[in-house]
Amino acid sequence: MASKKKTKSTAKKAPLKGKADKKSGVAAAKNRSVKKSGSKTDRRPAPASRKTTAKKKAPARKPSTAKKSAKASAQRGAAPRATTAKRKAAQAARPSSARANKAHSNKARPVVSSKKTSTAKKKGAKKPTTAKLSAAQLAKQKAAEKARLAKEKAAALKERARLAKEKEAEKTRQVKEKAAEKARIAKEKATELKEKARAKSQALKEKAAEKTRIAKEKAARKAAEIAEKQRQHREKLAEKTRIQNEKAHEREQASAEKERARQEREAEKERIRLEKEAERERIRLEKEAEKERIRLEKEAERERIRKERELDAYKKARAAERERVRSEKEAARRALEGRVAQQQRRAARIAGTARGTSSRVYRPDAVPSQDGTRREGLNLPRPVAVIQQRSITRPPSNQPPPRDPPPASLDERWVKIQRRLSRMPERFQRDYAESFDMSWIHHDSALEGVVFTYQELKTAVDPNIVIVPDSSLQPVCVEIRRHKAAIEWARELGNEDAPLSAEVMKRLYLLLHPEEGDLKSVKYRKEIPQHRLYFHDYAAPDKIAVRIRQAFEWLHGPEPPKLKDPVRVAARLHYDLLRTFPFPEDSGKVARLLMNILLIRAKLPPVIIHSTERQRYYDALRGSLPTIVQMVSDSMRNAMVSIEKVLDEEEANDAAN
After folding, report:
1. What is the pLDDT of residue 350?
2. Nearest to 607 by CA among 650, 574, 585
3. Tens digits of per-residue pLDDT, 103-137?
4. What dihedral angle (degrees, nearest 10) is formed by the CA atoms of 316, 322, 326, 331?
5. What local confidence, expressed as pLDDT, does residue 17 receive?
6. How far apart are CA 356 and CA 363, in angstroms?
7. In which region does residue 464 sit, left (phi positive, over 0), alpha (psi from -120 to 50) or beta (all else)?
8. Regions of the chain with pLDDT less than 70
C-alpha cells in the first residue's frame, strides 16, 4: 500500500516540475534577448533563471512613486531640470536596495522596447532641422516618454504579480494535495487498524467462546459426578438412618416399659404421701383456725375498747369545741353590748337626756341570737323588759342600688368579682388579701384539729413584725408563716403551666415541715395513723407510692379533659390523695393546696372549707366522690357570696362618703 501511495504522489508532482521548467525557459529566453539588444559595455554574464525572476520582481515594489511624479510634473508643466532634481533627491532618499532595483530596471528596460528606441534614433537623424524646438514641446515629449515608461513598468509589475499569484496558488494546491494525501493515508491506516482490531476481537471472542464451552462441559461432567456421589451418599445415610431408627425404637420400647413401671411405683408413693400430708394439713388448719378465732376475738375486744375511747375523746372534743364557740360568742356578745352601750351613752350626752349607767337601750338587731343556748325541759318564764321608746333621729340609710343577678357559671362570676376588686382602693385590696390569707390558714388548720386565735394569726401574718415579742407565740407564728409560704407557692404554681407530680407534692410538704430535709430524704408514712375525729380508710404504707403515681397519672391522662369540669377534677385529686394519706401529718393541707392549684389554673377562686363544716367534710371523705365534689362546689359558691357582700358594703360606704 505504501509503495502505491508513493507512486501516486510522484505522478502528481511531475506536472509541477514541468511547469517550473517552462517558466525558467521563458526567463532564460528573455535574458538572452536582453544580452543581444544591449550595448557592448553593458554585457554581463546571464544569471540563472530563478535569480533573473527575482531581480525582475524587485522593481515592482516601487512602481507608483515614479508614476505619480511623472503625472505631477506633466500637470504642473514645470521645467525638466527641476523635475529631474527632485527625482534625484527622492532616489537618494530611498534605501540602497531600491536604488539597485531601479538601476536594474533601467538597464533591463531596452530589452522590452529595443525596436522602438532604434526607430526613434533614426527619426532623430532624419530631422536635424527641428533642433530648435520650444521648451513646452520638449517638456511634453519628456512627459509622454515618462508616461510610456510608467505604463511599461506597470505592465511589468502586473505580470510579476500575476506570476506571484500563480506561484502562490500552486503552493497552496500542493499543500492541499499533501494534506489530502496525508488524510487519505491516515484514513487508510485507521481502517487497517480497525480491521486488525476487529479480527483480533473476533479471534478473542471465538477463543473465549471455546473456553466457555470447554468450562461448561467440565462443569456439567463435574456436576454429574457430584450428583452421583450425593445420590450414593443419600442412599447410605438412608440405610444408616433406618438401622438407627430401628435400634432407637427398640430402646424406646424398653425405656417406656421401665418408665411405666417406675411411674406406677412413684404414683403409689405419692398417694401415700398425699394422704399423710392431707392429714397433717387438716390438723394444722384446725389449730390455725382455733388460733385465728382467739386472735380475732382479742382484736375485736381491743377494737371495741379503742373505738369507745375514741368516741369518748370525740365527745369530749366536741364538747370542748362547743364550749369554745359558746365562750367566743359570749365574749363577742359582751363586746357588742359594751360598744352599743357606749354609743348610746354618747348619743344621750349629745341629746342631753343621759341616764344612769345601769340602763341600756338595745337595737333589735344588736341582740345576738340565743337559740340553742337555753336548757331543754325547763319552762321558765321569759323576762319582759319594758323599754321606753324614744324618738331618735337617724341619718337616712344609703342602701346600694339593686344589682344584676350574678352569672350562672362560676368562672364568669369570679371574673366579675375580680373586676370589682380591681376597682377598689388599694387599702381595701391590701386588707382583703390579708384577711383572706388569715381565713385560709385558720380554717385549713382547724380542719386538721389546730385552732389559731386572731391575735396569733395577726402577729404571724403582719409583715412589719419580724421578731415575735412574745416568746410563747414563737412556735405558733413559725407554723403559720410556713403555711402562708406554702399558700404563696401554690398561687405561683397556679399561674404556671408546669405539670403537677409527686415531687411538687413533696415540696409543699417540705414547706410545711422543713425539718424533714430535702426531696431525697422526705419519706412517706410507715404506719397507719389513728385520727381522733375521722375514720376513713387509708392506703397501706407499701401501697402509698403506687397510689400516688396512679393519682397523678389519672390527672395527666385523657379522662380529665373529657370531664370539662375543673371543680370535679380538682376534687377527685384531693379525694384520692386523702384516701391515700401519704404523710404522717398535714396530708390534708397538702391535698387541699394541690386542689386549689388546679382551681386557680382553671380561673376559679381557691376553695376554703369552713371549720364549721369539719364533721361534714370527714363524712364526705368516708363517702363517695360526688359528695366531696358537691361540698367543694358549695364552699366555692359560699365564698363568692361572702366576697360579694363585702364588696357591696364597701361600695355603699364609698357612695355614702
Report:
1. 65
2. 574
3. 444 444 444 444 444 444 444 444 444 444 688 88
4. 70
5. 44
6. 18
7. alpha
8. 1-133, 344, 347-408, 529-537, 657
How far is it, in rounded angstroms, from Cα 153 to Cα 159?
Answer: 10
How far is 636 from 566, CA to CA, in rounded Å? 12
Q: Cell 377527685 sits at which residue?
A: 572
Domain assignment present for 128: no
- CA dihedral angle for residue 280, residue 283, residue 285, residue 287, rounded to 10 degrees: -130
565 vs 618: CA distance, rounded Å: 23
- Asked, for residue 296, whether it belongs to a domain, the answer is no
Number of domains in the chain: 1
Question: Where do we find the cell 359560699?
Answer: 638
Cell of 179: 494534506
DSSP string, 172-213: HHHHHHHHHHHHHHHHHHHHHHHHHHHHHHHHHHHHHHHHHH
351: amino acid identity, one letter: A
Question: Which of 480, 497, 477 shows the shortest CA–CA distance to 488?
Answer: 480
- Angle among Cα 462, 464, 470 to the nearest 5 degrees reads 75
CA triplet 511, 514, 519: central angle to 5 degrees? 80
What pLDDT, on a 0 to 100 scale, did the predictor assign at position 471? 78
Grid cell, residue 417, equals 368579682
CATH number of 468's domain: 1.10.3290.10
Q: Which DSSP symbol is given to 607? A: P
CA–CA separation, 125 and 108 (whole Å): 25
* Long-range Cβ pairs for the range 493-499 (8 Å, 24+): 493/597, 494/596, 494/597, 494/598, 494/599, 494/600, 494/601, 495/600, 495/601, 497/601, 499/556
Residue entry with cell 533642433: 131
Write a three-state SS string for 374-418.
Answer: CCCCCCCCCCCCCCCCCCCCCCCCCCCCCCCCCCCCHHHHHHHHH
Residue in the block written with cell 381557691:
606
Asked if residue 637 belongs to a domain, the reply is: yes
Which of these, 647, 612, 138, lies nearest to 431 by C-alpha position? 647
Cell 422543713 appears where? 514
pLDDT at 373: 32
Domain membership of residue 473 as a residue range: 410-656
Half-sphere exposure of 266 (CA within 13 A, CB side): 6
CA distance 439 to 436: 5
Structure confidence at residue 280 (pLDDT): 92
Q: Enter the pTM of the model.
A: 0.43
Does residue 44 sit within a domain? Answer: no
How far is 377 from 379, CA to CA, in rounded Å?
A: 6
Q: Is 234 helix (H, G, I), strand (E, B) or coil?
A: helix
- Residue 112 CA to residue 101 CA, distance in Å, equals 17
Predicted local confidence at residue 517, as pLDDT: 86
Q: How many beta carbons lie within 10 A of that of residue 345, not counting itself?
A: 17
